[in-house]
Amino acid sequence: MINFFNKIISDNTNDKKRKFSKSDLSNCQEDLKNQLNALLDLYNDVIGSEKVVLKAARLGALDLLKSEDLAEKTMAFMRLTYEDPTITEIPKIEDIPQIINEIEEYLAELCARRAVEDRLERKINQKIEDRHQDYIKEIRMQVLQEENEYGEDDYIENPQTLKKYAILEKLESKKLTKSIMEILRPDSLEEIIGQEKAIEALKAKLSSPYPQHLILYGPPGVGKTTAARLVLETAKKMQSTPFAKDAPFVEVDGTTLRFDPREIANPLLGSVHDPIYQGSRKDLAEIGIPEPKPGLVTDAHGGILFIDEIGEMDLMLQNKLLKVLEDKRVYFESAYYDPTASNIPKYIKKLFEEGAPADFILIGATTRASYDIVPAVRSRSAEIYFEPLTSEHIEKIVNNGAKKLGVEIEAEIPKLISEYTIEGRKAINILADAYGMALMRVNSDIDDKCDLKVVITVQDVHKVAQISRLTSYTNSKGAPTFEIGKIFGLGVSGYLGSVLEIETAVFKTEQGKGTVRFNDTAGSMAKDSVFNALAVVRKITGEDLSNYDIHVNVIGGGQIDGPSAGMAIVAAIISAVTEKSLRQDVAVTGEISIQGLVKAVGGVFEKAYGAKQSGISTMIIPIENKNDIPEKYLGLDIRPVAKIEEALEILFAKN
């Protein structure tokens, strides 16, 4: 912005008509002050006195406005009008009339603009009100016409609606056979393989006179949803249960539930359909009555609300669900509800004043870790962990599926499918796809379809694997052999354990110039485990490791979360330095201290599944984890140890 004061000086220099003599100005200073005060009053009226004070304070003009000096007051008005705090030069007395003229022009323009804006705003509001009233009149006329011609309870049909109804009826007459997944889904608890402990816990908690809210953790495809549904049916038959024979099982996917801050729609908790704008019934909208719509929590009243993938739910919605769990009711609010109105239906009055019943048991299932669930939800729920499936479990599931389909399968197929997945649902999908392949092959080879015999072959499963790009789930395989510098460690990700192949190579080098190399992709904690291991190795072997180049590698770059690979790394380095071979049917987990003590680690249960899946027969764990896992768990030889020397005795032992 051009400095206003410089502009006035320039105008006065070029315009001789606007020059004023000092003698003339001294005689009219009082008139000029009055003009400035009048302009200030006008400015207050246009933008408001409070805003003028705040603006003057921000621009450093508040004290100048109160001054009795004409020049200072003029400079203050210049700052205020043009929002320029850099105006610091007090104007000359002969320039003040021209400045006042410019301020008058600015205020005149401001007043004109404000008047136009106010006029437009009034017109806009009037247009909105007119259209709103026209819309209400149109709705009223339509309702009156429908009531006069058809009556309140009659529904208006026309050729278009009747045609659409006929199309729907025609679609209903066409039906395919049942989905193969419906056929293969477990019909009883006995058909849910590998989850005996979890099902027992479910029964105990739901069959009690005081059932608990539950959270089911576990990998996908192990039967969490099916188990919950079947356990409810079992609980209904018990005398101690509070569930009635018609207790509902309402199932919803948490990924589809989203919190709407406007609360126009909430399928979980329910919402209020306000008249006209949000689609309450026409008879209610006509008289301005909002209509509450109960949600799934009310549908589940007296039974179970099962939320699959509850960890994916919106956090705000989870917190709102907590209020329902505590109150066992859902309450509705609306600005349109008038409790004193006499024409409100009883059910609407009851919903607004008493709420809708929502006394149910919440069962949430998730594939996420427990720390991903809102702590307040966890604190109100019992927690049950479903376990990953082993190869033997998958084989049983495949055999049961073949019996339900009524087909024969080659003996190698259950074992083959178990190599591609540890999910029961995925195993069934592979079997179903292989069944389709077998049917296609049989139909093309046999002319007489009367005696159709379907046999699923290994080749059918291989074709499915190729088309679906399936790969073997486990690449690391234990074996009753011995190798130098190679050992199996154990890791865990989520609910699934895995075997990590750790290998070590050492090379003699110049004295004191040895180096240590470790792949960074395994994680910083694993790298720390290597350096701790070096101290333990030197203590046990007496070798000065600064004379060796040592290379430790986790094959495949597996991420190691935490220090649990410490014991495995120590054993691998000692094997490479001493050239003693290690057993390849043993897997190891445990943190190592620099004193050679084996410290506790987490995820022992999950790691045991990973070891079993990879053909490991013996599992070495810290003695502090001894009570975390049963003896002979999954058929594994569990060996708790307190010191690294105890682990080395097992690892170097010749059978």
What share of the residues lie within helices?
40-55%
Q: What value does the Rg take, in angstroms? A: 41 Å
How much of the sequence lies in strands comes to 5-15%
How many β-strands, per DSSP? Answer: 22
Termini distance? 93 Å
Shape: flat
Instruction: Identify low-pLDDT runs.
Output: 1-22, 148-154
Write the layout of secondary structure elements.
Blueprint: H1 4-14, H2 22-27, H3 29-47, H4 49-58, H5 62-65, H6 70-82, H7 96-150, H8 159-172, H9 180-184, H10 196-206, E1 213-217, H11 224-236, E2 249-253, E3 270-273, H12 282-286, E4 291-294, H13 296-299, E5 304-308, H14 315-327, E6 329-330, H15 346-354, E7 356-357, E8 361-366, H16 375-379, E9 381-385, H17 391-405, E10 408-409, H18 413-418, H19 424-445, E11 455-456, H20 458-467, E12 482-484, E13 486-493, E14 496-508, E15 516-518, H21 524-541, E16 548-554, H22 566-578, E17 581-583, E18 586-588, E19 591-592, E20 598-599, H23 604-613, E21 618-622, E22 637-641, H24 644-651
Parallel strand pairs: 1-8, 1-9, 2-5, 5-8, 10-11, 13-18, 15-16, 18-21, 21-22
Antiparallel strand pairs: 3-4, 6-7, 12-17, 13-14, 14-16, 19-20
Helix pairs in contact: 3-4, 3-6, 3-7, 6-7, 10-11, 17-19, 19-20, 21-22
